[in-house]
Amino acid sequence: MYDFLELNKMVETGKVKVVKELVQNALNDGVSPAAILNEGLLPGMNAVGEKFKNNQVYIPEVLISARALNTGIGLLKPLLSADAVEKPGVAVIGTVHGDLHDIGKNLVKMMLESKGIEVIDLGVDVTAEQFLDAAAEHGAQVICCSTLLTTTMFEMENVVKEAAARGVRDNLFIMVGGAPLSDAFCEKIGADCYMPDAASAADAALAWLKEKNA
Amino acid sequence: MTNRENYLAIARRQGYEYMPVHFNMCPSLQEKFRQYQETHDLFIPEGPSHVGSLPMICAKPEDFLPYYENKPLKPGANIDKWGVAHEPGSKAAFHMTYMRHPMEDFDSLEQIRSYPFPVFTPEGAEQQKARTEALHAAGKAVQGALNCSLWEQAWYLRGMENLFCDMMSEDPMAEELLDRVTDVAVKQIESLAAAGVDSVYFGDDIGMQHTIMMSEELYRYWLQPRLKRVIDAAKAIKPDILIIYHSCGHINELIPNLIEAGIDILNPIQPESMEFRQIHAEYCDRLSFHGTIGTQTTMPFGTPAEVRQKVFENLDIAGKKGGLFVAPTHMLEPEVPVENVVAYIRACAEYTSR
């Protein structure tokens, strides 16, 4: 059993150069790329996610850890065969129509990716139709809608309605997040899940995907 | 009391006569409000008068285009004096724009050193002083605003993710960038202090909805000393100048650092993120406040009666001595009913401490 403790720690603390070295060392030692990813890199980022959820660390720690994670993944990508990596599922993410803020959305994206979920990022100002088109195109089961503004929060209801109109509502987990939102709002518009922070959102997406695809 | 005496008395918690209003509206709401005023009599208790900041000498917008070569700007993008680009969104985005960062791809200190930062010309200083003196002679309070923040202006240039990573890895690029931006802010505030303004408004968003944005340790290492440098520069020239500091979101844990840096008035005490009653109880001997009426809750979704009730409730918490300029916590956006804006103004005009 390879000892990934140091690599876990270096991802968690965002030491990009050391992560590069340790990933290369593991490869030289004949460790499989999938094991390096699943046991070496992702647990480090997940540890940050847990601490973020508990307000023990803040955005900068998440960002620097994600950067270290992505550096490691960059080294592994050419070596990873598609079936060697467990992918819980695909999520489509975007900031809703009329809203151009993306810092929160980007954090959720990082957290989802740290769970191994494939994320299709549609950017900002995304219409309900674009969310549903992308979900269909990429076979996504999760849609994550972000907004910072009270002006645009009701746009999220259009995503829920569009999913219903297309007859795909029951196959989708529609998540909503952003500063002015709440559980009550989520329930009111008929979405499936609101989470107050990025790490909890990724946990919820992963839990739903696991249950759905069990 | 004159407008100025009343303003200073509220800020210094010395008892006041009336509550001045302060609010900003997005363009579409401004138009609705204008129409309302055409058909209704509305008394608006006047707040401080404003003086502009020093004119900036800066590169031409097209001079910044090479910084966006890797990812060209959307048609209709506007480049500001710092070189930060603002791309338009769909019609549904109203006045809002998507920000693009000219230093996003920088990887060397030299690139930051050779960047065309704006510089301020002292030519406007005389004008600032003359306007301030004229307003004071008319009994009016004068507020200046820095059109430059520290943390925010720096990340507008570099991108938030990049700047946070630079700070976390103690990259000299972060130090250089923050210092250059701070230099500009110091020049600005020195000129406002020399003009004799009563207060200066500026700030940075360092809070998220439910938590602080960065650890206290990171804040104290990178940002608090630079904030203190700006405030010290103003108070060295005009010791009684009032510093109104803005940060959206939850910033409870950082407030002692802001007080240590020398702020006098904290804005906006977003009620969705912080409890005004608690913040007031903890800091009312050292701080005054500005804001407290929620723009995620009461202003867009409350009734006019609820707006009035909140205004009264918060002014009651502040008490007879003042210490609160009650105001919406942010710009009022298109979904805010004009009736709620009117209710806010009327509540300020009709409030008498109980």
Describe the biggest sheet of chain A? Answer: 5 strands, parallel
Q: What is the rounded distance between the termini of chain B?
A: 20 Å
Q: Any idea of the CATH topology of chain B?
A: TIM Barrel
CATH C-level class of the largest domain in chain A: Alpha Beta
For the report, how would you describe the main beta sheet of chain B? 7 strands, parallel
Shape of chain A: globular
Strand order of the largest sheet of chain A: 2-1-3-4-5
N-C termini distance of chain A: 28 Å
Derived from helix and strand composition plus strand pairing, the structural class of chain A reads: alpha/beta
| CATH 4th-level superfamily of the largest domain in chain A | Cobalamin-binding domain
Helices and strands of chain A, in N-to-C order?
HHHHEHEHEHEHEH
Radius of gyration of chain A: 18 Å
Assign the CATH architecture of chain B: Alpha-Beta Barrel
Q: What number is the mean pLDDT of chain A? A: 95
Tally of helical segments of chain A: 9
Give the name of the CATH architecture of the largest domain in chain A.
3-Layer(aba) Sandwich
Give the strand order of the largest sheet of chain B, numbering strands 1, 2, ... along the chain: 1-7-8-9-10-11-12
Describe what is shown at a glance.
With 214 residues, chain A is α/β, with parallel strands linked by helices.
Topology:
The complex is a heterodimer of chains A (214) and B (354).
Chain A: H1 5-12, H2 16-28, H3 33-53, H4 59-76, E1 90-95, H5 103-114, E2 118-121, H6 128-138, E3 142-146, H7 155-165, E4 173-177, H8 183-189, E5 193-194, H9 198-212
Parallel strand pairs in A: 1-2, 1-3, 3-4, 4-5
Chain B: H1 3-11, H2 27-39, E1 49-51, E2 56-57, E3 78-79, E4 85-88, E5 97-100, H3 109-113, E6 119-120, H4 125-137, E7 142-145, H5 151-158, H6 160-168, H7 172-195, E8 199-203, H8 216-237, E9 242-246, H9 255-261, E10 265-267, H10 276-283, E11 288-293, H11 298-301, H12 304-318, E12 324-328, H13 338-350
Parallel strand pairs in B: 1-7, 7-8, 8-9, 9-10, 10-11, 11-12
Antiparallel strand pairs in B: 2-6, 3-4, 4-5
Helix pairs in contact in B: 4-7, 5-6, 7-8, 8-9, 12-13
